[in-house]
């Protein structure tokens, strides 16, 4: 079967990493790359040293359209800043390509419904690049859930608990440095929004576990926020030596910790955290609790009633090995060899994407799933603003 003719929009931190993995999978040919960076040619020459160099499009913000017009492309991978995803995805769908999009929260309630409409209209697929779905432990826990080991699922938690102050604030205490980097495009939301900006890593695996959009549905969201800006003010004061009170003239809307409680039709509850401006080690905070046992990813531990010693956590390893997913049985060694940075999950994700496009695998998440995860962003903002529970949309 012919290789997948692939084009990339956005060759920043994430786009470049995806390129290095795609080069290792013999299902993709990267034929073109678009990015506004004046250094794109140099970046691509380095990444493709000794290989066929893809065509480069970097003459301004709309040059990706020229790339779509001038080439026959099967798949467009979008790894640009958040505010560009919708327009670029829709343009790629209209030009007859499948799309794989990097993850983020929806910027408004219409964003993904509009993309779903365009995907159906053009009969082209959109694949969410939600890499956590492809983690070895997540896929094994999913197998255990389907084998009934945890019983009926009751309570799940997850979150994006990642101190981003190293991105949002520079070393001398300036917030949102204006250099076109993630610092600039990500930081502006902290001044204007209060909600869960980045829900998909924490939520997507939990939705897979619960069969959301298949056998269960999220019916409501209730979100809460702590006082805005405390962590950002403290970090700025620490870095620029100013008094904390002087720093407070910077106004932020984003609470340091946003908690969303999602309730499902079946009666399960998901607690989701967005926690990005306080000092802490990184965590996705996963826990899954059912009528017969519990998994806690932070502890790397499992407790199964009747199997584990009474009220004692067991190391998860033997279970993860026993219930290893077939993706990992097939591709583990190459995944770990090429994708040390993300413990193999990005490699497995791209491998499954390639296999799915060639008709040999089912990709385990749809655009409608992405719309569901991403809807937490706008609906958490509405819930916080109104101080009430909000019905959750179905897609
Ligand atoms: N799944 C993960 O683990 C993971 C990790 C990091 C980032 N991400 C996601 O990847 C996406 C990109 O994040 P990043 O950290 O690489 O950001 P980044 O700022 O490093 O890269 C974005 C790139 O897009 C380019 N760009 C800007 N405007 C453009 C345009 N009009 N046309 C083409 N290119 C344009 C920029 O020049 C930059 O090189 C985001 O959605 C982010 O949430 C996902």
Automatic annotation (TrEMBL):
Residues 139-314 form the Glycosyl hydrolase 109 C-terminal domain. Residues 4-127 form the Gfo/Idh/MocA-like oxidoreductase N-terminal domain. Signal peptide: none annotated. Keywords: Glycosidase, Hydrolase, NAD. Its cofactor is NAD(+). GO terms for molecular function: hydrolase activity, acting on glycosyl bonds; nucleotide binding. It holds the Pfam family Glyco_hydro_109_C. Gene3D superfamilies: Dihydrodipicolinate Reductase, domain 2, NAD(P)-binding Rossmann-like Domain. InterPro entries: Gfo/Idh/MocA-like_OxRdtase_N, Gfo/Idh/MocA_oxidrdct_glycsds, Glyco_hydro_109_C, NAD(P)-bd_dom_sf. PANTHER family: BCDNA.GH03377 (PTHR43818), GLYCOSYL HYDROLASE FAMILY 109 PROTEIN (PTHR43818:SF1). Belongs to the Gfo/Idh/MocA family. Glycosyl hydrolase 109 subfamily. This is Uncharacterized protein. It comes from Barnesiella intestinihominis YIT 11860.
């Amino acid at each position: 079967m012919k290789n997948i003719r692939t084009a990339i929009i956005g060759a920043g931190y994430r786009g470049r990493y995806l390129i290095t993995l795609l080069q290792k999978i013999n299902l993709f040919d990267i034929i073109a790359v678009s990015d506004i960076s004046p250094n794109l040619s140099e970046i691509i020459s380095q990444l493709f040293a000794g290989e066929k160099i893809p065509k480069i499009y970097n003459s301004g913000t709309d040059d990706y359209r020229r790339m779509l017009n001038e080439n026959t492309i099967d798949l467009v991978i979008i790894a640009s800043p958040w505010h560009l995803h919708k327009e670029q995805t829709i343009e790629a769908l209209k030009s007859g390509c499948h799309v794989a999009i990097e993850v983020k929260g929806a910027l408004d309630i219409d964003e993904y419904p509009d993309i779903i409409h365009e995907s159906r209209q053009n009969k082209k697929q959109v694949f969410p690049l939600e890499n956590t779905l492809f983690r070895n432990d997540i896929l094994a826990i999913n197998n255990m859930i389907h084998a009934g080991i945890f019983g009926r699922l009751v309570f799940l938690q997850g979150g994006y608990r990642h101190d981003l102050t190293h991105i949002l604030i520079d070393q001398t205490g300036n917030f949102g440095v204006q250099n076109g980097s993630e610092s600039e495009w990500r930081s502006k939301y902290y001044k204007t929004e209060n909600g869960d900006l980045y829900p998909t890593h924490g939520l997507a695996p939990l939705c897979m576990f619960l069969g959301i959009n298949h056998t269960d549905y999220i019916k409501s969201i209730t979100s809460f926020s702590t006082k805005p800006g405390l962590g950002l003010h403290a970090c700025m004061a620490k870095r620029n030596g100013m008094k904390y009170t002087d720093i407070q003239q910077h106004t932020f809307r984003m609470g340091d910790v946003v908690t969303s409680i999602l309730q499902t039709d079946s009666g399960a509850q998901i607690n989701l955290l967005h926690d990005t401006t306080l000092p802490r080690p990184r965590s996705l905070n996963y826990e899954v609790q059912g009528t017969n046992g519990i998994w806690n990813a932070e502890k790397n531990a499992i407790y199964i009633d009747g199997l584990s010693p009474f009220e004692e956590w067991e190391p998860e390893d033997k279970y993860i090995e026993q219930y290893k997913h077939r993706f990992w049985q097939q591709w583990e060694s190459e995944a770990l060899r090429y994708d040390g940075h993300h413990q193999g999950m990005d490699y497995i994700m791209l491998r499954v994407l390639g296999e799915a496009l060639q008709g040999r695998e089912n990709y385990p998440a749809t655009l409608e799933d992405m719309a569901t995860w991403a809807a937490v962003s706008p609906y958490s903002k509405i819930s916080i603003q109104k101080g009430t529970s909000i019905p959750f949309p179905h897609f």
